[in-house]
Description:
With 324 residues, the chain is an alpha/beta fold. The chain folds into two domains: 3-50, no CATH class; 79-313, Type I PLP-dependent aspartate aminotransferase-like (Major domain) (Aspartate Aminotransferase, domain 2, 3-Layer(aba) Sandwich), CATH 3.40.640.10. It is built from twelve helices and ten strands. It has helices at 3-12, 20-26, 52-55, 64-76, 89-101, 115-132, 153-158, 183-186, 193-211, 237-247, 269-272, 300-313, and strands at 31-35, 38-41, 46-48, 108-112, 140-144, 175-178, 216-221, 251-255, 279-282, 294-298. The strands form two sheets. The protein has a seven-stranded mixed sheet with strand order 4-10-9-8-7-5-6, with helices on both faces. A three-stranded antiparallel sheet has the order 1-2-3, with no helix packed on it. Helix 10 (237-247) links the parallel strand 7 and strand 8 (251-255). Helix 6 (115-132) packs across helix 12 and helix 9 (193-211) packs parallel to helix 10. The longest helix is centred in the middle third of the chain and has 19 residues, at 193-211. It is globular and about 60 Å long.
Amino acid sequence: MNNESRVLDMARHFHSQTDPRLHEDxxxxxxxxxxxATVTDDAGNRYIExxxxxxxxxxxxSDSRLADAADRxxxxxxxxxxxxxxxxEPTVELVEQLTALAPFDNARVxxxxxxxxxxxxxxxxxWYYQAARGRPEKRKIxxxxxxxxxxxxxxxxxxxxxxxxxxFNLPPLPIIFAARPFYYLDGLPGEAExxxxxxxxxxxxxxxxxxxxxxxxxxxxxxxxxxGGVLVPPENYFPKVQAVLRKYDILMLSDEVVCGxxxxxxxxxxxxxxxxxxxxxxxxxxxxxxxxxxxxIISDKIYQCVADEAHKVGVFGHGFTYSG
Length: 324
C-alpha cells in the first residue's frame, strides 16, 4: 500500500474488531497477495496464515478453480434472487450438494449472505417452529459464556463475550447463558473429564428448570468454540447435553460457521462430537471465504412444521437479497 492509501485507511476506514484510536496511530497491516496457506504484505513479507483469514480460507488464498468458476458464472448471470418462487441453476446445484452432506435425512437449505445471518435465521426458525406448534411462550435461547455467533444484533446478543455487549445498549432479548466446556481451566481438582461433562450437563438442567423449560425454544452451540478460545469439548459433553435438551423439548442448533466442511475430520463438527442438531448454520468454508455466502441446513421435522405455518400465513416472511 502506498503512503497515500495508508493515510486514507487510517483516516477513513472504520475497521471491524479494532481499537479505532490505536488504528489512527498505527495503521493497518496490508495484505496484497495470497497463495495456499501464505499471504504477502505490501512490504513483501510472507506469512503463514494459520487462521485462514477469519477461519474461512480452508482451500487456501486465491484458489484458481473458484476464481474461474466465479468468472464463468458472472459472465453468464451475475445475480438473480430467490424470492417469490424464483431460482437459478447454481443455487439448485449448491442446495443439492449441501443436502447430500447433511447429517439428517430430507434436509432443506435456506441460503443467506453470512454466518451472522445464518444464526439469526436459525433463531427465527426456532421461534417460528415453536409458535407453529402452539408453543409461542418457548422463546428463550440458551447460549454459552465465551461463545461467538456473529455481529448482528441477535448474533452479538448470543455471543458470550463481554466486548460484544459493552456500550452497544442492546435491546432486551430472551437469551440465557450456560457454562463453557473448558476442562483445562474449569475442571475441579481431581475431576475426570467425563465427570466434568456430566457436571456441565447437570448445571444445564438446573438452569433450564430455574428458567422454566416451557419458556425455552433452543440451545445454540459451536461444536468447537472458536473466538472464545478454540475450546474442544469433552468427548461425552454433547451427548449428555443433547439428552437434557430432549428431556425438556428444546431444539439443538449447531453453529458450524467455523467447524463446517472438514475442519474436524468430518463434514460437520456436530458429527465429530456426537451432537444431533435440528438445524445447523454454515458459511466461511462454504466458499473458502472467496465470496460472502452462508446457509441454514434444516431438518425435516423443523421444515414440515414451518412450511405448514407459512402456508397458513400465505408466505414465509424472511429472506435476504443475497439468499442464493
